[in-house]
């Protein structure tokens, strides 16, 4: 806390609460100096209008956020200053102020109160309730349990529904703009910064596909970003295009099926497939549909307290939530008071429902018994074990169709068991010619995985015609693997506690990689208790040793299999990961790692044996 007058500037030491006069301190703003009482560091504040800016939280040069204190009322505030330079002309600055004015009219506890905004020295500023910077996420890489996540998601969805109804697009929803304040209350801030001012990170995993492709911020894009935030909150990592999001969420435990379905809809690549708002998610969280009032008034309370009016002339399934100014939406037909129902009538109704459900179950069992599985001991009509599933006509007993099934439980991998060193290249492809060793030495192997035509073309021209087609396929796959490997780090790379990361320079770091991207590189975190001042905070993929890259590929393959379960499509996706990873290792001469990955892929999805043989593993 601080006091300020035109002559004096006084602040409190955050450690010992001593009141300090810093009017004559000869330091730049936000530099630290030792408290004369306790010796701990104190930052030099900066006076700005009626605010004392105590700490710069974030800045990109033209937009800066500060933790501040309003001197007149002593309110902790978040101040945003935008400079009026060439990047932000008057039209953008006015648009930013216009967005803030619209947000200031939306009342919800999840939205910080806007105290003031306006022009200053050619730029603009805004001041709102201080939001804090406590993340909602679990930084151990695990998802937040549904019991704790439920109120956070519900509060955020209610706030964003209000924002949507107010005609405001956020454009930058994510971990940095959805936070908890000091009291644990969820807050969403940053309105106007990502739309009017155009702040945007092209590699932000929260951004929608259309936004990353250069499109404008939109309501639908906000829904996608919100879905990513929910997914990461619940699972601990970002959604991956190659993984079934519904399967991952269902394994977290406790998440209602309806909530999972709505989050998956929000994550749809096409804006047309996403929901129109947040009310369907809220309904799924609450777990109930609006019901008739027990008083028989024909009304029920919907999301946010809006009334639902039911027609006596239509079924109870025809329910519409109110969205008009009065909160009520009339359904066609007259609305009358529901007559009272006696206990005897209720009993009869319940019995009818019970017998109806029982009859439906019996019919369902009878129909299912017509489909005769032949993969176990209960074979019929002389079917061989494991041959497939036969559909039999219940009237004639004749086989209508038979679907063969290849078992996934057993696979012969003996041809991959042979010992091989990293430089052994004498293996012969079972299908098609394998490029001779002396020609493979000429393969372009850029350390940063960025292939160019100038490198690939001479190599292809040096090959005999019979080898080129298959080698082109290899190049096409391998050239995309650099970006693919970076994308894997949307999910943290954490092996056993205390494990080391091997670097290409021979050093080893006791740590893990919580996140990474092709643009920003891989973030390195040390394990708790490890102190290594020489350890880099960020590395590129090419700075890792190939043994570590192979471990990374195996690690994420195992994670894919864990999430795949017995789903054929998911196991095929896991196989593709292993096969492409094997091709990458093989291209760079690490044959042993390639064989190991190919073997894991074949065990995951035995029908992929043909592809394994094709590429000569």
Notes on the structure:
The chain is globular. The chain has helices at residues 90-104, 146-165, 209-212, 219-235, 245-250, 257-266, 279-286, 343-368, 437-440, 453-462, 465-488, 546-564, 568-587, 591-604, 609-614; strands at residues 2-4, 9-12, 19-21, 32-34, 41-43, 46-48, 51-59, 63-70, 76-82, 114-120, 123-129, 134-135, 178-180, 186-188, 299-301, 307-309, 371-373, 388-392, 399-404, 500-502, 508-517, 521-526, 538-539. The chain folds into four domains: 2-129, 2-Layer Sandwich (Phosphorylase Kinase, domain 1); 134-286, Transferase(Phosphotransferase) domain 1 (Transferase(Phosphotransferase), domain 1), CATH 1.10.510.10; 344-404, no CATH class; 417-614, no CATH class. The strands form seven sheets. The chain has a six-stranded antiparallel sheet with strand order 6-7-8-9-11-10, covered by helices on one side. The model is unreliable at 1-6, 288-341, 370-391, 403-410 and 418-432 (pLDDT under 50). It is built from 15 helices and 23 strands. A hairpin with a 2-residue loop joins strand 10 (114-120) and strand 11. By secondary structure, the chain is α+β, with helices and mostly antiparallel strands. Helix 2 packs antiparallel against helix 7 (279-286), helix 4 packs across helix 6 and helix 11 (465-488) packs across helix 13. Helix content is 33%, strand content 17%.
């Amino acid at each position: 806390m601080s006091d300020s007058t035109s002559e004096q500037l006084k602040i409190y030491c955050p450690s010992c609460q001593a009141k300090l006069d810093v009017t004559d301190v000869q330091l730049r703003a936000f530099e630290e100096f030792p408290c004369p009482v306790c010796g701990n560091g104190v930052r030099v504040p900066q006076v700005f209008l009626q605010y004392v800016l105590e700490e710069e939280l974030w800045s990109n040069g033209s937009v800066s956020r500060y933790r501040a204190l309003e001197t007149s009322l002593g309110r902790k505030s978040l101040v945003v200053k935008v400079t009026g330079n060439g990047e932000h002309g008057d039209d953008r600055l006015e648009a930013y102020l216009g967005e803030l004015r619209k947000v200031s009219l939306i009342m919800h506890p999840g939205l910080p109160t806007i105290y003031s905004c306006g022009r200053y020295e050619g730029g603009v500023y805004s001041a709102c309730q201080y939001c804090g910077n406590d993340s909602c996420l679990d930084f151990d890489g695990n998802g937040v349990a549904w019991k704790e996540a439920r109120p956070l998601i519900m509060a955020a969805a209610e706030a964003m529904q209000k924002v949507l109804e107010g005609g405001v697009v956020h454009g930058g929803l994510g971990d940095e703009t959805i936070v908890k304040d000091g009291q644990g209350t969820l807050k969403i801030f940053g309105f106007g910064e990502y739309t009017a001012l155009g702040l945007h990170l092209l590699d932000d995993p929260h951004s929608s596909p259309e936004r990353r492709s250069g499109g404008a911020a939109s309501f639908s894009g906000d829904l996608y970003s919100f879905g990513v935030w929910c997914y990461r909150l619940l699972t601990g990592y970002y959604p991956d295009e190659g993984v079934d999001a519904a399967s991952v969420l269902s394994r977290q435990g406790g998440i209602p099926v309806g909530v999972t379905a709505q989050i998956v809809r929000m994550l749809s690549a096409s804006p047309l497939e996403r929901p129109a708002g947040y009310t369907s998610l809220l309904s799924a969280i609450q777990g109930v549909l609006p019901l008739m009032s027990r008083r028989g008034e024909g009304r029920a309370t919907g999301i946010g307290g809006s009334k639902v009016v039911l027609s006596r002339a239509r079924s109870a399934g025809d329910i519409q939530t109110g969205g008009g100014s009065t909160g009520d939406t009339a359904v066609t037909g007259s609305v009358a008071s529901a007559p009272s129902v006696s206990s005897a009538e209720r009993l009869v109704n319940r019995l009818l429902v019970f017998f109806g459900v029982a009859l439906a179950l019996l019919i369902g069992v009878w129909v299912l018994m017509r489909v005769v599985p032949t993969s176990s001991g209960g074979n019929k009509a002389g079917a061989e074990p494991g041959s497939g599933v036969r559909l039999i006509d219940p009237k004639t007993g004749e086989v209508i169709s038979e679907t063969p099934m290849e078992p996934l439980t057993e696979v012969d991998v003996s041809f991959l068991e042979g010992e091989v060193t990293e430089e052994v290249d004498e293996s012969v492809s079972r299908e098609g010619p394998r490029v001779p060793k002396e020609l493979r030495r000429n393969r372009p192997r850029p350390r940063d995985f960025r292939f160019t035509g100038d490198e690939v073309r001479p190599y292809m021209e040096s090959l005999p015609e019979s080898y080129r087609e298959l080698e082109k396929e290899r190049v096409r796959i391998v050239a995309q693997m650099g970006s693919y490997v970076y994308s894997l780090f949307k999910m943290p790379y954490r092996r056993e506690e205390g494990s080391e990361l091997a670097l290409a320079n021979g050093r080893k770091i006791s740590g893990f990689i919580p996140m990474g991207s092709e643009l920003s590189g891989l973030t390195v975190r040390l394990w708790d208790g490890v102190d290594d001042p020489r350890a880099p905070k960020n590395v590129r993929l090419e700075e890792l040793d190939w043994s570590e890259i192979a471990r990374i590929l195996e690690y994420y393959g195992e994670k894919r299999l864990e999430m795949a379960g017995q789903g054929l499509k998911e196991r095929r996706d896991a196989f593709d990961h292993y096969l492409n990873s094997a091709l990458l290792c093989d291209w760079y001469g690490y044959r042993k790692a390639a064989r190991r990955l190919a073997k894991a892929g074949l065990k995951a999805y035995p029908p992929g044996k043909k592809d394994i043989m094709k590429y000569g593993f």
